[in-house]
Design a protein that fits this description.
Layout: H1 9-13, H2 29-41, E1 45-50, H3 53-57, E2 70-73, H4 78-91, E3 98-104, H5 106-110, H6 113-122, E4 127-132, H7 169-174, E5 180-185, H8 189-201, E6 206-211, H9 215-218, H10 225-234, E7 241-244, E8 247-250, H11 260-265, H12 275-296
Parallel strand pairs: 1-2, 1-3, 3-4, 4-6, 5-6
Antiparallel strand pairs: 5-7, 7-8
Helix pairs in contact: 2-8, 4-6
Length: 298
């Protein structure tokens, strides 16, 4: 069944736990993603922030822009810190509080992967969110293992573009047999909020992989973040689905399928790709989509 994804009146009228005046760049997908996520989780939340763009966006204590407790930590310790806070809250009997680790792709795919794996293996009762803008944006747009094939970064310049595909975090996390895995995008706000609401009700390790366009690193206009984010799903580069207790569900069926080339050419970071590389990207995307379809049909 096809659904329409626009902010409902209920969401528009709900409380903003991330207040206005935060320190994000214009068009920042990360600040919008956090604003929507908190509409799904509510005030009874503790957020663990490893070093990333969001650490700056929320502002400097005591004038930070979130109305909930924040724990700022080193980039590699998001999952294990969240698990420790969860244990402390349980000792106090405060089991209605959600502990959310909000990490960037570097703090998830790369530097934070070790503690994330351990936390997932133990099935600790936390929500881990990868706020993925596909590079180390906070420190100057350096390549991460979440950076897509063919993308420009300051460490993969023209003539040395990334030749590896983006790391498959889905297979890594599902290999730990966690109870809930989902993808989400700021371009589909109702879907995003619904998934955070669901994650609040599930016990054990939950993981949400969230695509957050970055105008600076993606080389797009600040006004294009939502359009380009939607193109990622319509081109099947970033499908929106969830896996609950091993059951795969496709949440958004592309209603206007577009070739991968349209998505790539909308961003300056892919300007140096050759036609052969773009065709290769299309084939890699088609292969991943076919693998997912097999899971959806089970």
């Amino acid at each position: 069944m096809q659904r329409t994804f626009n902010l409902s009146r209920e969401l528009l009228c709900s409380e903003d736990i991330l207040e206005s005046g935060v320190l994000s760049c214009q068009g920042c997908g990360s600040s919008l993603a956090l604003k929507l996520a908190m509409k799904g989780l509510g005030r009874r939340t503790v957020i663990v922030l490893p070093a990333q763009c969001t650490s700056i966006i929320v502002g400097i204590y005591p004038d930070q822009g979130l109305k909930i407790p924040i724990v700022h930590i080193p980039i590699e310790t998001a999952a294990v810190t969240a698990a420790g806070i969860r244990t402390a809250l349980d000792v106090r009997g405060e089991d209605d509080i959600v502990v959310m680790a909000w990490a960037g792709d570097g703090g998830t795919f790369d530097i934070g992967l070790q503690s994330l794996s351990g936390t997932a293996e133990r099935n600790d009762d936390i929500l881990f969110v990868c706020n993925d803008n596909e590079a180390y944006m906070n420190t100057g747009v350096q390549r991460s293992s979440a950076t897509p094939y063919g993308a420009w970064t300051t460490t993969t310049p023209k003539g040395a573009l990334k030749t590896e595909s983006k790391k498959d975090i889905r297979k890594i996390m599902l290999g730990h047999h966690i109870p809930y895995f989902a993808t989400a995008s700021v371009a589909y706000p109702d879907d995003l909020v619904q998934k955070f609401r669901k994650a609040r009700t599930i016990k054990g390790m939950r993981f949400i992989h969230l695509l957050s366009p970055c105008p600076t690193g993606w080389r797009i206009s600040a006004s294009e973040s939502i359009r380009v984010g939607r193109m990622a799903t319509q081109a099947k580069v970033f499908p929106l689905y969830e896996v609950e207790q091993g059951v795969h569900t496709l949440n958004v069926v592309p209603n206007r399928e577009i070739p991968v080339s349209d998505y790539l050419r909308a961003q300056g970071r892919f300007d140096f790709m050759t036609d052969a590389m773009i065709e290769d990207y299309q084939q890699r995307t088609d292969g991943t989509w076919k693998d997912l379809q097999k899971e959806f049909e089970r």
